[in-house]
Design a protein that fits this description.
Blueprint (H helix, E strand, L loop, with lengths): L5 H15 L3 E8 L4 E6 L5 H27 L4 E5 L3 E7 L4 E8 L4 H20 L16 H12 L9 E7 L6 H10 L12 E10 L4 E10 L9 H5 L4 E7 L3 H5 L1 H11 L5 E7 L11 H11 L2 E4 L8 H31 L7 H14 L6 H18 L4
Parallel strand pairs: 6-8, 6-9, 9-10, 10-11
Antiparallel strand pairs: 1-2, 1-5, 3-4, 4-5, 7-8
Length: 397
């Protein structure tokens, strides 16, 4: 019989209750026979609640009979069940357990599902006991248009690079391409051939230090489940991403063909100027390769992002991928500081006079230069000059 650390499980339940709020009445983990492994109830001293929980096993048994069939078919992820007083969410938590959430009958389950999958994944890993699991469940929220604008404003007004900053890194791609293996290799330097499929998303932390630069970058890594059953949750989990790793399997053509889909999803909800890299995984299986290095590079070029190949199994290029990402973050922060200083110099600079015809000629010249720019740095520099001319036009200079 597997030992289950119920103290850790109970701590996870408390975080889950806290983040979901008052609409969550109880949370429990049951096995496939309907036996309760552990349970936390918001108002456990209430007589009505005690009666309800006492009778719950019989309800679970009925529901799980149907769910067990779905387990056997390999299609079960999550499901809901309603009564006149309660709403239930049943979510697979590993191959042998189910996380059950008991909600107020007025609860909107779509708002709860992102947290349910997070809790189910953490519960499965806690029960498995293989690696340390943080019980913390971060806030997940799909922004309104107004909130998106506010978030972008806060981003552009943020402080320059600091080791205290934590950046959200989202690892995306089809199921089975090796995302979990890459995270475990990078964070814990281990590799297992039989990782359990990620439920919703799996979150871990890692700090990348650069002694040469005297600084470091801390990442909160969100490893997204790539199966289609989790598709409705992807925008919620990807919101506010500062970095994105899009991964495909070099031995799986379909995973490569889906790269553009993943690119479109993350760029719609991520932070401005997101750092993106395309990674072709499993180069240790080079003899079974169906996607060439040239194809990977060509697609990355088309998307305007960087490309690398790696192997989570042998650890080839894993450190290099994260070091490249870290350097991009540091460099972008330096550039933003430079831009701020440049703007300040303009504001504090001497006034001068330029005629309208001269201004028109300068505008035409720099606009034409955009056609001859090679790379992002040249384009950025030319746009900067055009912005100066706009400032002159508005009599700011």
């Amino acid at each position: 019989m597997t030992y289950i650390d119920k103290t850790k499980l109970r701590t996870l339940f408390k975080w889950y209750m806290q983040v979901v709020g008052d609409i969550l009445i109880s949370v429990l983990v049951v096995d496939r026979e309907g036996l309760i492994v552990d349970i936390l109830t918001k108002n456990s001293d209430k007589t009505d609640e005690k009666k309800f929980i006492g009778a719950f096993s019989s309800l679970v048994e009925l529901v799980l009979k149907q769910l067990t069939q779905d387990f056997d078919l390999g299609t079960f992820g999550a499901g809901t069940f309603n009564t006149d007083k309660y709403r239930f969410i049943f979510c697979e938590s590993g191959s042998d357990h189910v996380l059950v959430s008991i909600l107020n009958h007025t609860a909107l389950v779509d708002d709860v599902f992102p947290y349910t999958y997070l809790a189910a994944d953490k519960a499965a890993r806690t029960i498995d006991g293989g690696l340390p699991v943080s019980p913390v469940i971060p806030k997940v929220k799909r922004d309104t248009e107004l909130e998106k604008i506010k978030r972008k404003m806060e981003y552009y007004q943020s402080k320059p690079h600091s080791p205290e900053n934590v950046y959200k890194l989202s690892l995306i791609g089809d199921g089975g391409v090796g995302k979990t293996s890459m995270v475990q290799r990078y964070v814990h330097d281990i590799f297992k051939a039989d990782y359990k499929a990620t439920i919703g998303t799996y979150i871990s932390k890692k700090e990348c230090k650069f002694k040469e630069l005297g600084t470091s970058v801390r990442f909160m890594i969100w490893n997204l489940a790539g199966q289609s059953q989790f598709e409705r949750l992807w925008p919620d989990y990807l919101t506010d991403s500062r970095v994105g790793i899009i991964m495909f399997d070099i031995t799986d053509k379909e995973s490569f063909e889906h790269v553009k889909k993943w690119y479109d999803i993350i760029t719609r909800v991520a932070l401005p100027n997101i750092v993106l890299i395309l990674v072709g995984n499993k180069v240790d299986l080079n003899l079974s390769r169906v996607v060439s290095t040239e194809e990977g590079m060509e697609l990355a070029k088309e998307l305007g992002i960087y490309y690398m190949e790696a192997s989570a199994k042998t650890s080839e290029n894993i450190e290099d991928i994260f070091e490249w990402i870290t350097l991009q973050i540091i460099n972008l922060n330096i550039e933003e500081v430079k831009d701020t200083l440049f703007d300040k110099q303009i504001e504090e600079g001497s006034k001068f006079i330029v005629s309208s015809p001269q201004l028109k000629i300068l505008n035409q010249y720099f606009a034409k230069q955009l056609d001859y720019c090679i790379g992002k740095s040249d384009t950025k520099e030319t746009i900067k000059y055009l912005e100066i001319l706009k400032a002159i036009e508005r009599n700011k200079l």
